[in-house]
Amino acid sequence: MIDQIRQNVSLLSVFFVIALANLNVATAVELTRQRAVEVALTNNFGLRTAKYVSDVQRENNTWGNAGRYPSLDAAASVRTFGAMPSEGETVSDDSYSLTASLRWTVFQGFAIGANKTRLELLHQQSEQNVEIFVEQSIHNTLLAYDNLLLQRELLQAQREQLLLSQDRLRFVESQNRVGAVSSFEVLQAQNSVYSDSAAAVQQQQFVLQAEDALRSVLALPSDEPLSLVSDLRVPEYTVDQQLLENATATNQFIKQQALQLQLQQEQTTVARSNYYPSLTVNSSFGIDPAQTSFVESSSDPLAYSAGLTLSINLFDGGRTATATQVSKMRENIEEIALDSLKLFVSREVQRAEQILSLQADIVTMRENAFNNSARVLELSDRRFRTGTISIIDLRTIQVQHLNASVEYLRSLYEANRSRLGLLRLTGTLSEMTIE
């Protein structure tokens, strides 16, 4: 029975090693944090779309679209007439006409200036959308990068745990053969190998999920191998106090909402412009078709006209008043949203700063616990080999060390995530130095 269990454990270990070895067969792309961000900013579909939208808004931002310039139309026509009377020769006549018309709205109750301002704000808003996509892409890329680092470090910890369990199984088996320990200790050591093998395979699944998540952020093929060059490092816990104080002015979403408020204010100006008169210049020039026969005529074929039209809206059933009132209400809604967002960001910045400060202490304590557990495990292994402690006690200490390793690695990841979130709140994530 014991021999069969030994064979099963050996086969499981072999299969596990083969599975891990096959994961890195293809040549991997080496990625630093900086390189990963560059790839994400190049391939991100949302960012590329936002840039094209910004280009469209830039092209639309003209005085012509705002209505400042006149419109000039021209038309030409040719007409042929013929008749065949019962007696006499065929009568025919050809004529043509050329006309041109000019229409220019000189004043429209300040609507033209407001429309141009709206076009400029729409362009600024589209550029702001690009900045938001850039920050979001950087944030998601660095989080996905660090998560993959974390999962691979956890896998390495599980592998070390498995190697230790296999080494102790071999030691217990050798002691069992000489009668120093019973089969109970062998079964306990085998259970440890089984448990650690399953945990390592499960952690490998988490690694594959993290790799897929990073490829998705980088917009890479699903079979693209990844080699991460940067390490999961201890972050900087200090952020410029001036940035924290100015967060409500530099936060990208607050900037976006401020532009939205300005857009609605200009819309109110446009709605209110119907209260004012409009002045339009009309002019036309043409050749009268009635006088353009190729038959000789003494009449002057040229005709032209020019005039000014002043229009005043005396009554429109209350449509202008309603449109102005509704636009003003929407303006109030956008202003409330801006004030709410400023308060939210201000609170979140304070909370994120406090959390980052606390996580600095957590990382230090987790690191100390990890170092101490490693020392305890080393001493316990010596005592186990001399028979001072049992294999059950050793397994408990081994699991404690693994947990300490996991908690330390997770604390590093959480601290890095908190710092990224704080920088994003201050609107300076795209300006940070990526190492």
Can you walk through the features of this model?
It is a single chain. The protein has helices at 2-21, 33-43, 45-60, 63-66, 111-177, 183-218, 241-245, 247-250, 252-272, 319-385, 391-425, and strands at residues 29-31, 71-83, 91-108, 226-228, 278-287, 302-311. The chain contains eleven helices and six strands. By secondary structure, it is of the alpha+beta class. Strand 2 and strand 3 form a beta hairpin. Helix content is 66%, strand content 13%. The longest helix has 67 residues, at 111-177. The strands form two sheets. A four-stranded antiparallel beta sheet has the order 2-3-5-6, with no helix packed on it. A two-stranded parallel ribbon has the order 1-4. Helix 5 (111-177) runs antiparallel to helix 11 (391-425) and helix 9 packs antiparallel against helix 10 (319-385). It has one domain (29-77, 91-431): Outer membrane efflux proteins (OEP) (Up-down Bundle).
